[in-house]
Amino acid sequence: MEAIEALFAQLSREPDLDAPELQAHDSADTLLLRTAAAELNELGDGELVVIGDRHGALTLGAASLFGVSGIRTHQDPLLGERALARNAEHLGLADSYTNHLLDERLLEGARVVLMQLPRGLDALDEIADAIARYAAPGVRVFAGGRVKHMTRAMNEVLGRSFTEVQAGLGWRKARVLTANGARALETAPFPRWASDPDLNFELAAFGATFGGPTLDHGSRLLLATLAKDRPQARRIVDLGCGNGVLAVATALANPGAEVMATDQSSAAVAATSLTATRAGVEDRIAVHRADGTEAIPDGWADLILLNPPFHSGSTVHTGVAHRLIRSCARALAPGGELRIVFNSSLGYRPLVERTIGPTQQLARDRTFTVLAAQQWE
User: Fold this and answer.
1) By the 8 A CB rule, do 145 and 175 touch?
2) Domain 2-182 is of which CATH architecture?
3) pLDDT digits (tens, 9 = 90+) for 222-262
4) In what residue span(s) does the RlmG N-terminal domain sit (predicted)?
């Protein structure tokens, strides 16, 4: 226990969002390592997979404290990968793991899977199915989380892919679910597709794609403002592209425009690529897995569309949106426009005006506000 805490004290969230109320680890990480200790001590090279390790606590704990080698990891957020890499370098464990997508290469031959439970049931469903489909037949899964974020539905979702799911005792407001008896479904549950009456194309989503294969209310309101007031833009960015709805809708509405879609989520990037391909605009949308606007050249964008997240992991936090808004100033061309939709209670307008320039409200309803801000010339 003391060794775990001493190791975790050395971990940083950087370059992910950092704040006094946010940590690079939590009690679920500690409980997972303690619960799986016997299995970790018996693993051979390449037999451990870690999924959803936010900043490296599970991966580096297994490598440092249990001597596990050849660990394979999957982290949907790019900043999680980068935080793990930074912490691994600091601890001299950079060679202890490799990064993978959520696929057969990640899970083939895995005897043990450690995972932080994702926020959404769809994400858990996809992960559980992938483990059952690709890991070793006798794989044991240890899935942990904070009790306040766990529901009985998680047991039911795991039960679709495993014959036995047991909940352990709570400890420091954390709990671990253990799953055995893998049974893969006949058909993989993802990607999923859906249509919407306000769209002339279908949307794709993977388990961790924010919002799933739907047109969320904020994006619907933003698109309505574009239908009434479409800026003259040759270069358009969908920042935080999710399932690709804004990128594809603007590509279809502006046949001569170049569109760039970026997101730090691997599930979002994959979904946007599929949505663009089915809509027939894949040749005009460049999709990047990137942090904020880092993939966009200075002053490239005539128009940036932004429907920012309002959470970091399971914590509601405006810092993510603030970071994205600030990054737009560098990427916008002089006179370019940021069009942003957000929950009205969050009050982003003062930041938008200070960071970008003159701002006007284009739409507002009971929940959301759409602003258009013009970059200072």
Assistant:
1) yes
2) 3-Layer(aba) Sandwich (3.40)
3) 999 999 988 889 999 999 999 999 999 999 999 999 999 99
4) 9-180
